[in-house]
From TrEMBL:
Keyword tags: Methyltransferase, S-adenosyl-L-methionine, Transferase
Source organism of the structure: Eudyptula minor
Residues spanning the signal sequence: none
UniProt cross-references to InterPro entries, sorted A to Z: Methyltransf_16, SAM-dependent_MTases_sf
GO cellular component terms attached to this protein's record: cytoplasm; nucleus
A biological process from GO: methylation
Gene name, Swiss-Prot/TrEMBL: mettl23
Protein name (record): Methyltransferase-like protein 23
Amino acid sequence: QIGAGVSLPGVVAAKCGAEVTLSDSEELPQCLRNCRRSCLMNDLPHVPVIGLTWGRVSPELLSLAPVDLILGSDVFFDPEDFEDILTTVYFLLEKNPHAQFWTTYQVRSADWSIEALLCKWKLKNIHVPLHSFSADKEHLAGSPLPGRHTIEMMIISLARSDGT
């Protein structure tokens, strides 16, 4: 999981039996400590937590084990980070061509889009309709989230040479 924050998606995946590596920015040690705490509180002391900064090639990024799935929960928050995120994702997908990046995206402004960056990095996007898993309601599980926000889920992978 990239941009793990408190690592809920990664912890859930690990509890379901997935082999998980959690990451957040090496420049945010508190986030990395929160990831480790989440793992310990959920009886997952074996889950590795590493510092990866988007857009930066580091020894930790280069030495990552092969992956099938990359999770990103609300990583597309600040448009200044969009290209760095996709640079890192592109690197991981090039290293693991069969892998996919599953992410959510809250539309915060009509002026912010990742479409041009996906094209630039030769990535394709499959939109996952929220209604396909009953997540298109204004209130979910008794929570006011997502409310009236526009949330999108997408699966990003390498585009083939023909652009598909």
